[in-house]
Task: inverse folding
């Protein structure tokens, strides 16, 4: 573990009097897989969108590898890769065309583009189907393509909002496996959100339990289970929320 | 009744009626449109009526008998302000008319009395044609008065041979036929331009809405690219399509103009008598249409950034209908010279009038006004793009839809 990849301090985001994020603070170390876990409406997506420079905070501070996200969003966009929840891809492009389109927008030269596309092809595991139009893909195939898109650029920080959202057991397993092996191979940092406790237990080095816009408990899954004397993270979460 | 039909119909109605943007777009827009148009048309008719109250008619009486004199007396009795030309020569009609500031001239030939007695009399009428509604109203009024006199004398004692003077040239075609031809152009051209504008706006409006609906916009906005290039890239994509539209329009327009010839008085092509634009004029019309489409597309793209899905984006374009159609309808039935100064400024200020005006000005050779219009619309487009780029740089591009949602509640 080296430098701090993500540093969030007293983050607040208000949408028309509704506090989506309410004084949130946490840190993610470089090379770590960190999971923001919580029920719907806890503020996970808003937090990730702020970190991905899509929204600006109402107050508080977000630093990515020491760079202030509000002051230099364009610098941050060079370091990150963001996968929105339930994102879609351009239906009339083929899988490869989509990867190449995205790679061109992220790379500095044609050689780098091709490198990214090759990596994307391999991460997606979609083989020949990559030559078909995206509108013919199943939900699971689309999600794998999008994960491949997010990881192929070798971002310093990958922000994945509900990476297995809407996927069945088999596809979810494959996607989690892809993320885990990719992080092991390239040492990138991953910040993900999920309401699937099983997923975060399998994937994350550390998690932050989020409720009503703030972290209510934080730590490695095993430690959390031990300290709350729970057999799984769901139990931890229920106990923490009841205390909250 | 087919099973489920009633349920589906009522759900559709609920969904459409509950979206204020859709219901306002289809009710308020046409109401405003017709109110403003009705007001404008009223003004135009009053002006036309006023212009025909006092008709000045030049008469060159060469008749050796007395029926010529009698005709002039009758004309005066029926309220025509006759200006008799004594020394004019039939060969320099155009100069004479200019000298006495006449728009209509009657020539009663030498043997008029003699021929009229055997029902073979002919008088020649010359009317300056510049394409305005008042001119044709004036010649129409004179023709009616002459018909009245003919009926008073005896059935068909003489005929009137009508000629038009277009840009200083005498054309042996009645001004009413010419104005009919020009009027049909005046109606068709604005309609075609309005359709092209609306189609391309619909197309562009969906481009950002689709990205929002399919959640691809968030991904794009998080990439290390200049956000302005997303906006301009989308614009250029639509412009490409709009350009195809503009070219198709020009080809069709050219063919359409070539297809006009005046029936009755032999074969007359509008292009031969100077009532179609010269090649330079066509280029100006093309550029004017192109910059106006560019403006329309920028407007549609920016407006669509405020919507969350494709249907609302398309409904939003409905709000632009009045400002597209009002100047088009106005220009169908009138020309700028007939409008009062404030209305004239308003029509010129609406960018959608420009391609229609460009056709008029290119035909009449007033290239400078057409160019001024092009510069004006280009300037507006730059302003809109600048505002849009500021908008794209903030989170509003994603959260603007939230604001609208709240408004709806």
Result:
């Amino acid at each position: 573990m080296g430098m701090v990849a993500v540093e969030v301090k007293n983050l607040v985001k208000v949408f028309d009097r509704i506090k989506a994020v309410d004084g949130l603070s946490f840190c993610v170390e470089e090379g770590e897989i960190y999971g923001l876990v919580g029920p719907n409406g806890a503020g996970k997506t808003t937090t990730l969108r702020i970190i991905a420079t899509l929204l600006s905070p109402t107050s508080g501070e977000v630093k990515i590898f020491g760079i202030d996200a509000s002051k230099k969003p364009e610098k941050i966009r060079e370091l990150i890769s963001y996968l929105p929840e339930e994102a879609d891809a351009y239906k009339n492009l083929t899988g490869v065309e989509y990867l190449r389109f995205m790679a061109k927008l992220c790379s500095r030269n044609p050689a780098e583009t091709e490198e990214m596309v090759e990596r994307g092809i391999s991460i997606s595991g979609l083989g020949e189907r990559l030559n078909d139009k995206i509108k013919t893909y199943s939900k699971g195939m689309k999600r794998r393509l999008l994960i491949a898109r997010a990881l192929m650029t070798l971002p310093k920080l990958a922000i994945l909002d509900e990476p297995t959202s809407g996927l069945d057991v088999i596809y979810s397993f494959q996607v989690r496996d892809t993320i885990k092996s990719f992080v092991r191979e390239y040492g990138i940092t991953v910040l993900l959100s999920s309401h699937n406790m099983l997923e975060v237990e399998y994937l994350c080095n550390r998690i932050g339990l989020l409720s009503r816009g703030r972290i209510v408990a934080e730590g490695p899954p095993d430690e959390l289970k031990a300290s709350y004397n729970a057999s799984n993270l769901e139990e931890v979460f229920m106990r923490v929320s009841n205390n909250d | 009744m087919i099973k489920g039909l009633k349920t589906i119909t009522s759900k559709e109605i609920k969904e459409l009626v509950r979206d204020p943007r859709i219901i306002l777009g289809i009710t308020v827009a046409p109401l405003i449109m017709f109110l403003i148009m009705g007001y404008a048309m009223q003004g135009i008719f009053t002006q036309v009526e006023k212009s025909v109250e006092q008709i000045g008619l030049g008469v060159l009486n060469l008749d050796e008998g007395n029926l010529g004199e009698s005709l002039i007396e009758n004309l005066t009795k029926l309220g025509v302000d006759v200006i008799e030309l004594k020394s004019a020569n039939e060969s320099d009609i155009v100069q004479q008319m200019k000298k006495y500031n006449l728009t209509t001239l009657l020539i009663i030939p030498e043997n008029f009395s003699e021929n009229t007695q055997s029902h073979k009399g002919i008088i020649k009428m010359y009317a300056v044609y510049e394409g305005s509604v008042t001119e044709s109203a004036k010649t129409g009024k004179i023709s009616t008065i002459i018909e009245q006199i003919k009926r008073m004398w005896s059935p068909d004692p003489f005929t009137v041979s009508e000629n038009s003077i277009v840009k200083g040239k005498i054309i042996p075609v009645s001004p009413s036929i010419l104005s009919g031809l020009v009027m049909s152009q005046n109606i068709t051209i604005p309609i075609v331009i309005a359709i092209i504008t609306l189609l391309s706006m619909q197309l562009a409006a969906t481009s950002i809405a689709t990205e929002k609906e399919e959640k691809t916009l968030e991904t794009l906005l998080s990439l290390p690219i200049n956000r302005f290039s997303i906006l301009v890239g989308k614009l250029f994509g639509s412009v490409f399509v709009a350009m195809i539209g503009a070219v198709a329009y020009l080809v069709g327009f050219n063919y359409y103009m070539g297809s006009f010839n005046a029936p009755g008085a032999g074969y007359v092509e509008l292009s031969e008598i100077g009532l179609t634009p010269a090649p330079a004029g066509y280029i100006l019309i093309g550029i004017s249409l192109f910059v106006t489409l560019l403006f329309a597309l920028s407007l549609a793209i920016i407006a669509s950034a405020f919507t969350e899905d494709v249907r609302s984006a398309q409904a939003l374009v409905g709000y632009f209908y009045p400002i597209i159609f009002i100047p088009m309808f106005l220009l169908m039935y009138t020309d700028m010279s007939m409008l009062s100064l404030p209305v004239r400024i308003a029509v010129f200020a609406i960018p959608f009038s420009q391609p229609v005006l460009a056709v008029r000005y290119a035909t009449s050779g007033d290239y400078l006004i057409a160019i001024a219009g092009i510069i004006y619309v280009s300037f507006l487009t730059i302003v809109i793009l600048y505002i849009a780029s500021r908008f794209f740089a903030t989170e509003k591009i994603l959260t603007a839809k939230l604001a609208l949602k709240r408004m709806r509640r």
Observations:
- The first helix of chain A runs from residue 44 to 51.
- The beta strands of chain A are 4-15, 18-29, 33-37, 59-64, 67-68, 80-83, 157-161, 189-194, 206-211, 214-219.
- The two ends of chain A are 31 Å apart (CA to CA).
- Chain A has one domain: 4-243.
